[in-house]
Structure formats: C-alpha cells, structure tokens
Specification:
The complex is a heterodimer of chains A (115) and B (115). Chain A is mainly β and 115 residues long. Chain A has strands at 3-5, 10-14, 19-21, 24-26, 31-38, 45-50, 56-58, 64-68, 73-78, 87-95, 104-105, 109-114. Helix content of chain A is 0%, strand content 51%. Chain B is 0% helix and 46% strand. Chain B has strands at residues 5-7, 10-13, 19-24, 31-37, 43-50, 65-69, 75-79, 88-95, 105-106, 110-114. The chains are: A mainly beta (115), B mainly beta (115). Chains A and B meet through strand 6, strand 10 and strand 11 of A and strand 4 and strand 5 of B.
Chain lengths: 115, 115
C-alpha cells in the first residue's frame, strides 16, 4: 500500500516570501501525484496534478510542483505567496492505471500568510 | 454547473445514536467516494461506488459503518451506534470514471460531532 508524508504541519510566511512544501510518498510502482488545497470555509479543490511527462507541472494561482522520481518527492512551490494563499494543502497519490482510483493523502500542511 | 453537495453540513449527536450523511454527486459522474478527515489527520478512504458494480468497502473502519448509493446517484453513509472516535469531517467526492486519471471533485463535507 502507498503512503504519503508531508513534513511540515504548519508554515507561517510573510507576503512575497517563497514557498516550498514537502511531500514524499512510498509506493513500489508508478503513481499519479496531486496537490489539493482547502481554503478556509471552502471545500477541497485540485491545485495541480502529475501523471507523466515533464516532471515540472504548473497549476492554478502560480503554484508549481516538481516530481523527483529518485527521491519519491513531489514538492509544491510558489515564488511569492499572497495572503489569499492562506489555506491547508494536501498531497495525494494513487497508483497509475485503470481501476486505481483510491487516493492516499498526506496529513496536510497549514499555510498562514501574514500581510 | 453544480458541484458535489452534502447534507447536513454539521451534525451533533449523542454517543450510541445512528446518523445518516447524504451526498449528491455531480450529475453524470459515475464514481462516488467517501473519505473521512479526522483532526490532525489526512483524508482516509472509506468506500467507493462505480455504477452498478459492487462497492469497494475496504476502507470502512468497522461494521457500524455502511453506505448505499441509490439509482447510481445519491449516496448515504450510515454510522450506527456512534462513538466519540467517529467525530470527523466526512467528505464525499465524485469523478467521471474509474481511472486513476479522473479528477475527484470534493463536496464541502459534513462535520460530525459525537458527544
């Protein structure tokens, strides 16, 4: 079975600071990788995803993530955060292919951006 | 179009009572998932429905938990004889297919508190 580790429980940044949230997964085969975001009072929504190809993927709102296969990592980055990025961020994986629908999530990282 | 909806948004119950949580998936989505988010934990997979196929119940934590999906649309998650450890946010998601490449769209969740 796969597992996901998010290293930071709570990150506090000032506006315009750069962001990197760590995510490592454990699985012996090929995986799909996702970052979901949950803004305060809102439902979980997809930020970006990686299936194959270019390991650097770009998502909404200026976020990007890089898949490093040798490190089993999929870290989320943003060059300059805004107050509106305050949210909880979840990394998730599932095995690639048909019938592999179950997402395994990390415990989440809460990001607080101070104006 | 309308997203995934869940009701109630909040439910407070006494230990030992039964509760029913409802999920309306996005119209046309054949796959439906239930997840549980406990305090400080990531999302935990509970159960999955796809069309008329037998559901994948592998994530249900005990036999007090059950779910059904009527007419391939609305789903109800039932927890019998609730315990305090059942307190969590219960999230429903739907997707257009069963492949691992199909994005799962999440509802706002039902926050269950067992006193």
């Amino acid at each position: 079975a796969q597992s996901v580790s998010q290293h930071n429980h709570h990150v506090i940044l000032s506006e315009a600071a750069s962001l990197e949230l760590g995510c490592n997964y454990s699985y012996g085969g090929t995986v799909n990788l996702f970052w979901y975001v949950q803004y305060p009072g809102q439902h979980l929504q997809l930020l970006l995803k990686y299936f194959s190809g270019d390991p650097l993927v770009k998502g909404i709102k200026g976020f990007e993530a890089e898949f490093i296969k040798s490190k089993f990592s999929f870290n989320l980055r943003k060059p300059s955060v805004q107050w509106s990025d305050t949210a909880e961020y979840f990394c998730a994986v599932n095995p690639s292919g048909a019938g592999s629908y179950q997402l395994t999530f990390g415990k989440g990282t809460k990001l607080s951006v101070i104006p | 179009g309308a997203g995934v909806s869940q009701s109630p948004s909040n439910k407070v119950t006494e230990k030992g009572k039964d509760v029913e949580l409802r999920c309306d998936p996005i119209s046309g989505h054949t796959a439906l998932y239930w997840y549980r988010q406990s305090l400080g934990q990531g999302l935990e997979f509970l159960i999955y429905f796809q069309g008329n196929s037998a559901p994948d119940k592998s994530g249900l934590p005990s036999d007090r938990f059950s779910a059904e999906r009527t007419g391939g649309s609305v789903s109800t998650l039932t927890i019998q004889r609730t315990q305090q450890e059942d307190s969590a946010v219960y999230l429903c998601a739907s997707s257009a297919g069963t492949s691992s490449y199909n994005e799962q769209f999440f509802g706002p969740g039902t926050r269950l508190t067992v006193l």
